What does this fold into?
Amino acid sequence: MAFELPSLPYSHTALAERGMCQETLELHHGKHHQAYVTALNGFVEKNATLQGKSLEEIVKLAHGDASLAGVFNNAGQHWNHILFWQNMSPTGGGIPGKLEAKIVADFGSVAAFKDAFKAAATTQFGSGWAWLVQGSDGKLKCTKTPNGSNPLATGEGKALLGCDVWEHSYYLDFRNRRPDYVQNWLDKLANYEYALSQLG
Amino acid sequence: MTRLSRRTALFTAAAATVAATLRVRPARAQAAGPYSLPPLPYGFDANEPHIDAQTMMIHHDRHHAAYVANLNAAVKDYPQLAAMSPDALVARLADIPEQVRTAIRNNGGGHVNHSMFWQIMGGKGGAPAGALADAINRDFGGFEALKTQFNRTGAGVFGSGWVFVTVTREGKLALAPRPNQDTPLMDGGRVLFGNDVWEHAYYLKYQNRRPDYLAAWWNVLDWTKVAARYDQAKAGTLTI
It folds into this structure.
């Protein structure tokens, strides 16, 4: 069965007042994410070994295999964007008490967590992602990955939050100012309720 | 509001912000260090309508300026590196102290790539002539074939990067895509010309349509400048 573009869990205008305009969401979801899905389906159609496999299986199987670079890029980006849409909310930014306690335990403070996340996001040179993951030791940490890679592929832990730092995520709203985009994302867009629901 | 009027309003507001901050630009450009942002050799609007003035302004005054500032910061505690030209820095990454190697790769690469990029634009497109046209015919099967292969290669760069045409001392040409701010200079090569396919190079005007940007970009090439670079390559004097 072919992979499909999931619907956004909110309207295209829902995040506009929180720093992500309608046009950004329309392009990002309807064009960029759709293009990854279309390309992934094209690869699967031509490659019998990929057929019948789940998205997670394809991401792991293609990771590190140069002959499957195109598969990895598009499967990874499909997986990343499925998470990304759920990682934002029109009422985002508020951290539930239980998650806050875990953040304080592992980072020292909410501010220290945000600094670590921002550092990951702004030092990812070129296109990529910043992540809040829960490692196999149970501890939260911030990481980054280039282009279409993700913690599922690298094995760095379970992704609780992923922030897209490809320029197409923020260029219409913030131009070159990636640090401002990431700060706004953490303060006003991030769906910490979702992150808590994924916490092991 | 329609999409078009919404974007126009957005851009007008942003342009006003940029214009307001232009007054503080000299202070930023004078950041201490051996490397400096080369002035754009033409107006921001010189590549209209193919590349819009706002994109040129942000690309040169913000993105390129940031690479220069970060490169200066990277060499601050290394006088022997600060004495080197930017092309020499990126050509000898293996000799660079590990603590600053990535910073110099990214920001030195960004500095040399963009310095080349501004040089070869500002023209009216058209077609190459003379010895350069002969080399393109020989190595790509013609100018149209070069454009087709170059555009396909640029569209195939996943994420941020560049597509270059490299040139040897003998004048032989080849296509060379690179990720992020890497450059063939890092592998001992020489760049005849190249196009920036980071989204910041085209997103305000072309959004997700990178192939449209790649196709339009040929209209702003200055073939006189590219031909001069070709001559320098054969003379052994081409640097960035």
Remarks:
- The interface with chain B takes residues 21-23, 27, 31-32, 35, 69-70, 73, 125-128, 146-148, 166-168, 171-172, 175-176 of chain A (CB under 8 Å).
- The mean pLDDT of chain A is 98.
